[in-house]
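new request in #modeling-help
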Amino acid sequence: MDTNAPGHEPTAVVNFRSLAVDLGILAALAAGVAIGCSFIGIARFGWTVWAMRLVRLATAATVGAALATAGMALQAMLRNPLAEPYILGVSTGAGVGVLVGGVLAGAIGLAGWASEPILALVGALATCLVVYGIAQRHGHLDPYVLLLSGVIVNVFNGALMLAILLVANPNDILNFVGWGMGQIRDTTDVSLLVVCAAAAVAGWGVLLVRGAAFNALGLGDDVAASIGVHVRRLRVETFAVAAVMTAAAVALAGPIGFVGLIVPHACRLLVGPDHRRLAVWCGLVGAIFLMLADTLCRTAGEWVAVGSVPVGVITALAGGPFFIFLLRRRSREAPL
Amino acid sequence: MKRFLTAIVLLTVLPSCHEQAAVRNAPSPRIVSFSPAITAMIFELGLSDHLVGVTTQDVQPDGVRRPVVGDAFSVNDEAVLSVRPDVLLVQMNVDRFAAVRRLDPNIRIERITIETLDDIAAALEQIAALAGQRQKGLDARKTFQDALEKVRQRVAGKPRPAVLFLTDYQSLGTGGRDTFVDQMIQVAGGINVAEKYSGWTTMTAEGIMAAAPEVLICQVAAGAEAQRAKKFLEGLKDVPAVRDGRVYLVTDRRWTIPCAAMASFTADLADMIHPAGGGGSHGH
Amino acid sequence: MSDPHILAAKDLVFAYELDRPVLRGVSLTAAAGKLLCVLGPNGSGKTTLLRCLLGQLRPVGGEIRLDDKPLGRYSRRGLARLMAYVPQTPQSAFAFTVQELVLMSRLSHTGLLGLVGQHDLAVAHQAMRMTGVAELADRTLEELSGGEAQCAMVARALAQQPSVMMLDEPTSHLDLRNQLVVNRMMQRLAHEWGMAVVCISHDVNLAARFADELMLMRAGEVVAAGEASAVIREDLLEQTYDVKVELIPTGEAMPVVRAK
């Protein structure tokens, strides 16, 4: 048996059983949270209310899982701990879509031809295609170039949004600011939810399967290639999957911040860097986190005499301190 | 090439010449409006001749193109000065106009708050007075208040149902205390379920269900959005308004621009809340 | 009959940009059971050569055959089971332990999700024992010294159970003792385990002492190739490194090379 230096636990090997156990426990927890939260709320309980809450919880779970897993994949693909889903331009692209389809269309009399989520989805996907087009070279994505392309497109989109807001009336602007904070709407179309959830689950599955390849990517592109990882294909695939998952999330709930950056880091602090385990944890922890945050939003409004609180506010206010706690706890344990 | 350039120059200069005419000949005092509500009232008072500058959002029913001098957030100092105004009527903070004031100390800046129905009445008088036509203002004010009183009397003594007015079906925005929406509902003989909130706020679907309004009005854009709004609202089956079929969709943008027309909208609201013989939903 | 050749490259030409070729017709043979060291100044194309041999770069001219089959005909996975690579600097962007890093190499041997079984664990442990890092299995790379980390990376490469090992200047950042350790290990891999070991080396003396065959490169061309005694000559070394050298005889088989 290997002797262990003091302070080191033996490395647990990730195998089928350990993944299945992780998945089972977390899935059960998520289901428990979902059912529990469906009974919490301010309206009197009834079948309609319950069904509405379940749809909203399903939306929250989808968005949380999609953002967290996409963030994890991008951090792995780019070997950058600051990467998060919106670096691909998805959030600003969605914003441009919403504004072009809403404010601009209104200005020329075409108001309301598509709902906000559809506009967001179209804007997000179009922007991702633009970012890919800028960053790719013979179908090859260099991490550095990709990051920069995302930054440039984000800045450009931001300016575009401000320009459109110049001709918006204050009501539109208020609505857009509300959207920009990220919130789970009660008006979510169920068929859109089903499509986005299917995309999120499929994407999650792909990222789980690629987990071992992500691990190897940390050794450097050439070592990873020598182990058998198709690095070029992996990068493009990850970009596409993360883009679709993030677009689905932003279409459903606007650009909710914090989840895609911090949940992967928190999970890494809890279960280590293996991306197969991380995929399971990020997906389910992200779902649970956002379900809890949204439930708080539904009920907290009453306490502060406000109708509703955008969930993006809660995620940042609640998640930040929790992550600092995790970080401090870990640095105390690690050897100097 | 030369002919092409000449055409371009003419095309850009000529329209501005036309608009310059309307603006050049405006009678004193020359008024610039920094608010769609104020602009609407200026037109309602019949004082549109005095209007020489507007913002991007103002509706101008007389078809004259006036220079745009700013928007909800910014003031174009040069544009303001170029129309040589005598008075600026604003809803926002007057500090924004410090630069304009420095450049031309003769310009008067009047801040008019328009949050409630009472504010509208006062504003009608104040605007007219500033234009030197106080009597028009007093008349408009009286007409406005009389119309509101008529509505009050119509619904006097009737039981007050719970009413909810949504400004947008996606964000579920509504008006709480101290907004003109709240007052309109009160005058029209209802109780605003959002009155526990102060100012403009948003609701959740659960909040709507918990509030259980008996009459529900929602402002939408026409077309596909109205369909989607209808579908969503009718999905809230536990809400009394939905159960009893008392859901109304309104498409006129002016429902949320406070001006004298509010009186007629309030009357429409009273019709929805207290229908003369039988309910049923219909759009406006 | 000639010795079994495992990796044979013929007349390789490669250029990153159209008018600046990095390799101008390089031929190389890496035989099983032999340690081949490639020497040359910076910019002579050594690393590019290695990457072509690994199949990561596609040469514009010439061909590479592994076990008498063109490199292009192998699948990525198939190639990973035959050739392993140790980079110059051990790095891991994520905080994996040595054991986890070594197990990553089993990717080409495992199925979906890359989950490892008992056999993979056994191979990993054996590889770690061979390079002397078995006791460091639960440490992360950051906690190891330079030599230990490099041995860990060699163990990782070994876990692929390759026939060909490629190392890029494995001892350039190591101290005297660890340089010897790694070089001896490379020799053992070739002689005891029958692997074809190709090593880019920066140290002429170490290469001369341990390698079975040497290759001198300069500006994308092979200056000389063959056994150490044939290649370690003043004129060839001067041509390669563009510096005057002297060969100082020691009592051993190979003299010490010193730049004048």
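bot summary: The longest helix of chain C spans residues 176-191.
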